[in-house]
């Protein structure tokens, strides 16, 4: 039985989706040359048209 992923939210809220996507790419790139499987990274839109980045954390 698979557990739901645990999400970590980046502490900064972005005013544009472009800014959030730059951070998303940076987080994903950090795992390319590593030995671990990279996290799932998502950009979520808030109700006030700002964006937040979250990624999974598995122990």
Describe this structure in words.
With 59 residues, the protein is α+β, with helices and mostly antiparallel strands. The chain has one domain. A three-stranded antiparallel β-sheet has the order 1-3-2, with helices on one face. The longest helix is centred in the middle third of the chain and has 13 residues. The model has no long low-confidence stretch (mean pLDDT 83).
Radius of gyration: 12 Å
Order of helices and strands: EHEE
Content of β-strand? 35-45%
Total number of helical segments? 1
> Percent range for helical residues?
10-25%
Low-confidence stretches: none
Secondary structural class: alpha+beta
Question: Can you count the beta strands?
Answer: 3
Quick synopsis:
The protein is of the alpha+beta class and 59 residues long.
């Amino acid at each position: 039985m698979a557990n739901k992923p645990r999400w970590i939210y980046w502490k900064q809220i972005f005013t544009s989706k472009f800014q959030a996507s730059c951070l998303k790419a940076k987080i994903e790139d950090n795992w390319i040359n590593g030995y671990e499987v990279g996290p799932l990274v998502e950009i979520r839109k808030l109700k006030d048209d700002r964006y937040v980045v979250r990624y999974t954390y598995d122990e």
